[in-house]
Amino acid sequence: MPFADRLAHFLLDFPLPPPLPDAVTAYSPYHEQGPRELFTEFARRYYAGNRPRVALLGINPGRLGNGRTGVAFTDGLALTAWGIAHKLPARREPSSEFMQAVVEAWGGPAAFYQQFYVGSLYPLVLLKDGRNYNYYDSPAITESLWPDMRANLQQLVAEVGLRQSAAVCLGRRNAKFFQRFNDELGLFEQLYVLDHPRYLMQYQRRHLAENVAHYVEVLAQAAGLA
C-alpha cells in the first residue's frame, strides 16, 4: 500500500478523544468532506510511492490552515500554488506562509514531500472558546491527550512509514514533550528542533530569508543529505 494510502487510512481513522477538561473541544478535519477531499488529492499527488519520510511534527493543527485544507501547515493559497483547486478563501495563515517558502526553497512540493512528512504531535484541531488551543496549554489537557499522542507517534512509524534515523520537531516548547515521548518509546535516533513557523513569522518576519535558509539546512541534515 502506498505511503499516501497508509497515511489517509491512519488520519481518517484517528479517534476523537473523550470529553476534555477546561471546556476544550477537539475535531478532526478528516471527518469533514471538504478537508478530507483536499487532503486526499494532496496525498496522492505528493505522498506517492512507498519511500519512508522524515517527520516534521508541530503541535496540533489550527482551524484556519490544516483545519480547512486537511494538510498540515498549508492554507488555501499554498494549495493553489501546489496546483490543487479549491473554493477556500484567499486568506494567508502565517505558519503556512513560512512553510510554503521552505518548500519552495527546497525545490517545490514534489521534491519536498518525497523526503518529508509534515504533521503534528497531536493530529486533531483543539479549540477553546472558538480559538486555537495547544495541547500543552494546560496540564489537564496534556494528560488527557497523552495516550493518543503516544499512539500517534507509534502508528506513524509502524503503520504509515516514517524514517527512524531522525525526526524534526517544530517548536521549542513542543520539543520538551516530543523528547519525553522519544525517550520512552525510542522511535527516532535523533531529534532536530526548530523554532515554530508561527513564532518566526510573528517575531522574526524581517529575517524570513535567513530563517528559511536555516530550515533548509537543518532539514538536509535530518534527511542525511548534508
UniProtKB/TrEMBL annotation:
Q: Which InterPro entries match?
A: Uracil-DNA_glycosylase-like, Uracil-DNA_glycosylase-like_sf
Q: Which residues form the Uracil-DNA glycosylase-like domain?
A: 51-219
- Which branch of life, at top level? Bacteria
Return any one Pfam family short name.
UDG
Name of the featured protein: Uracil-DNA glycosylase-like domain-containing protein
Query: Lineage of the source organism?
Result: Bacteria, Pseudomonadati, Bacteroidota, Cytophagia, Cytophagales
